């Protein structure tokens, strides 16, 4: 299980990476989440300008095994979507933290990110969950 040291994490297995400007972030699903879903065949992304609060469903990942809602880790307004996923949804499986990102957004409150799990906290959480038999 890969964990990006530059991200913060949720208990629903989404990640957020704050960009260098401190005002925008990228989000997607974790390596653990893509492993649980297996082969991603489709990703439904929001529209530019859509605004979400923490906990809102912002995307849907469809795999050969299941369809899963993806939830915002923190509040924000969508400024970009990863158009590559339309033709290559497998990027979520191959590069969940890089080429497989879902959205870029303006943070409503950058301090919200501090409430998310650190990489070390998420690694323990996901390892414990995997030991219990998965998501």
Task: Give the arrangement of secondary structure elements.
Blueprint: E1 8-9, E2 14-18, E3 24-29, H1 31-37, E4 40-44, E5 51-52, E6 57-63, E7 67-71, E8 76-81, H2 84-87, H3 91-94, E9 103-107, H4 119-131
Antiparallel strand pairs: 1-2, 2-3, 3-9, 4-6, 5-8, 6-7, 8-9
Q: How would you describe what is shown here?
A:
With 135 residues, the protein is α+β, with helices and mostly antiparallel strands. Helices cover 21% and strands 32% of the residues. The protein is built from 4 helices and 9 strands; from the N terminus they run E-E-E-H-E-E-E-E-E-H-H-E-H. The strands form 2 sheets. It has a 6-stranded antiparallel β-sheet with strand order 1-2-3-9-8-5. It has a 3-stranded antiparallel β-sheet with strand order 4-6-7. Strand 1 (8-9) and strand 2 (14-18) form a beta hairpin.
Radius of gyration: 14 Å
Distance between the termini: 14 Å
User: For the largest beta sheet, what order do the strands appear in spatially?
Assistant: 1-2-3-9-8-5
Helix content bin: 10-25%
Number of strands: 9
Number of helices: 4
Structural class: alpha+beta
| Major sheet size, sense and barrel closure | 6 strands, antiparallel
Q: SSE string, helix = H, strand = E?
A: EEEHEEEEEHHEH
What's the number of domains? 1
- Unreliable runs: none
Keywords:
135 residues; six-stranded antiparallel β-sheet; alpha+beta; OB fold (Dihydrolipoamide Acetyltransferase, E2P); three-stranded antiparallel β-sheet; 32% strand
């Amino acid at each position: 299980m890969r964990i990006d040291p530059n991200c913060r994490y949720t208990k629903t297995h989404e990640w957020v990476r704050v960009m260098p400007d401190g005002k925008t972030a990228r989000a997607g699903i974790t390596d653990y989440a893509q492993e649980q879903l297996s082969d991603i065949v489709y990703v439904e992304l929001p529209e530019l300008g859509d605004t979400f609060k923490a906990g809102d469903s912002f995307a849907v990942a469809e795999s050969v095994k299941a369809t899963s809602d993806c939830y915002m880790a923190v509040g924000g307004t969508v400024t970009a979507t990863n158009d590559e996923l339309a033709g290559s949804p497998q990027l979520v499986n191959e590069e969940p933290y890089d080429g497989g990102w879902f959205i870029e957004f303006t943070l409503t409150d950058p301090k919200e990110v501090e409430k998310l799990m650190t990489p070390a906290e998420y690694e323990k959480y996901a390892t414990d969950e995997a030991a219990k038999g998965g998501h």
